[in-house]
Amino acid sequence: MRVNREIRVPQVRVISDTGEQIGLMATRDAMRMAEEKGLDLVEIVPAASPPVCKIMDYGKYRYDQTKREKESKKASHQVKVKEIKFKPNINENDLQTKLRQTRDFLAKGYKVKVSCMFRGREMIHTEIGERLVQKVIDDLDDVAAVEAPLKLFGRFYTVVLAPSLKKKK
Q1: Cβ(120)–Cβ(82) below 8 Å
Q2: What are the boundaries of each domain within the chain?
Q3: N or C: which end of the chain has fewer CB within 10 A?
Q4: Where are the alpha helices (DSSP H) in the chain?
Q5: Contact at 8 Å (CB) between 88 and 130?
Q6: Is 90 in a helix, a strand, or coil?
Q7: Domain 4-71, what architecture?
Q8: Domain spanning 81-163 has what CATH number?
Q9: Which tens digits make up the pLDDT trace of 57-99?
């Protein structure tokens, strides 16, 4: 936005500080009018012909604008993704512990990336990892929905789960 002396066009359409349209006016006359009121002349629609300028307190306007931006940032909620890693030969009690942790993450509103990692010769039997991840999906079916389908990336089977709209029974 251009303010006061930065406005270099000969004529502008002026809006007063109360919001009423004053009309077409020479730029220097509009600046003089703004200075008499102790305010600034701010170009609000530079693309119009002639540009539209408003008489206002520019410092207060910038302050209100940054305040609105901060409020909109507070309102937007960023979803974090947590990751739970398994190995294909995990013990049942360890699996239940990780499932309980995954349920807690989902209950708190996080998305969860479930990964099954293969090491060395475990890559020969990827179907074991696929069954394990599918079992996790089935066990968490009441609190989670599959957001990204089950895929094999290199040495990892991964799936992304999001909190479901369904409530626990």
Answers
A1: no
A2: 4-71, 81-163
A3: C
A4: 27-37, 58-75, 92-107, 126-139
A5: no
A6: coil
A7: Roll (3.10)
A8: 3.30.110.10
A9: 999 999 999 999 988 887 777 778 999 999 999 999 999 999 9
